[in-house]
Amino acid sequence: MPKTLPNASALSVHKRRDHTGAQTCPECQKTLPNASALSVHKRRDHTGAQTCPECQKALSNAKALSVHKTKYHTGAQTCPECQKTLPNAQALSDHKTKYHTGAQTCPECQKTLPNAQALSDHKRRDHTRAQTCPECQKPLPNAKALSDHKRRDHTGVQTCSQCQKTLPNAQALSRHKRRDHTGAQTCPECQKTLPNAQALSSHKRRDHTGAQTCPECQKTLPNAQALSVHKRRDHTGAQTCPECQKTLPNAQGLSRHKRRDHTRAQTCPECQKTLPNTQALSAHKTKYHTGTQTCPECRKTLSNAQALSSHKRRDHSGAQTCPECQKTLPNAQALSVHKRRDHTGAQTCPECQKTLPNAQALSDHKRQHRKRKIAALDKDNEISPPADKVNKSDYQGKLSD
Fold first, then answer.
1. Which one, of 356, 376, 375, lies nearest residue 366 by Cα?
2. CA neighbor of 165 nearest in space, from 154, 149, 179
């Protein structure tokens, strides 16, 4: 369509600029459609370096300066979609390109992301090759994992602001806060109050697991805590006491042994008797400080449990047979006396050197010696009381002469 110019001069200028045919730039050899385009090209691209008057940035030419101003020195811009304020037109353009592109699908895993920026972050984090941490050489599956690892584990020592505890890194600090500074927690099962989430977690894991069966002895324990204690005490294998080298069947036995046998000397608070250890003191009290005891078989009253035990063992053991002569005795006490008198072996009288078959015979023999001495004394003093009437105490001094 013919262009209309206001006068002959304008027509002449128009022809000179726009209808000269293609023109080649002598500096860069770029071909322009006409003289006017060549002039604009030279003015923009071959003016030499230009400095932005607002930020002092150096641009290669006038065109670059113009583009720079259009992008960065437009003043604040508001996003028409989310009303976010951006510092300039370029920032607004970048913002739109990243956040207002609509949902994007990852071509590698088909995950849907809300916008192009999210897709870019996703690819950079999750679809990079395996990464190695430059600080600890730990292999991570992708850049995201490496980034998280660095942020958690290589932050340097961290101090808890609440208790001043020092943790090796941010991850440990985060875990510490989550476990120890949550405030008191109440167990939903037993209503027990625990000081923090960590204590509650441990409590549940130990006390509310339900009945547990020991895999070694099949004993049923009420919960995991009881099972743990049981294993630690009863299934540790034989243990040797470091003080006396005695071998105990397990840790529980060793603990009980130490408590009983390797405590310091103990004094009985009732009779002031000194016992070598706690076990001895306990046994002493059980035997001697139980108060009077009544024998259930003969109603005899004994001074304490030990006396009752000895009484039962001696007098209520039932008939006993002597293993040497097969004589039957009424009880263990009678058997003991019988053995002590009749089965001691041959005995020699110290006065006449006569050999007697046993202690009982020796005792009877000595009694005859005493009777003869008494008779001789009676004769010397012209005293002749019947033998069965003799008062031994009257002659005790003379017999010992």
1. 356
2. 179
The two three-digit tokens of residue 391, written as one number: 């008062």
Using the predicted structure, report yes or no on whether residue 259 has a pLDDT greater than 70.
yes
DSSP state of 209: S
Residues ≥6 apart with Cβ < 8 Å to 220: 211, 212, 213, 214
| Ramachandran area for residue 61 (φ above 0: left; ψ -120 to 50: alpha; else beta) | beta
Q: Distance between CA 66 and CA 52 in Å, rounded? A: 9
Contact 320, 331 (CB under 8 A): yes
List pLDDT tens digits, range 1-10. 788 878 878 7
Q: Residue 400 CA to chain centroid, in angstroms?
A: 80
Rg value, the chain, Cα: 57
Measured in whole angstroms, the distance separating CA 176 from the mean position of its chain's CA atoms is 15
Q: How many residues does the chain have?
A: 401
Give SS3 for 193: strand
> Distance (Å, rounded) from C-alpha 378 to C-alpha 372?
10
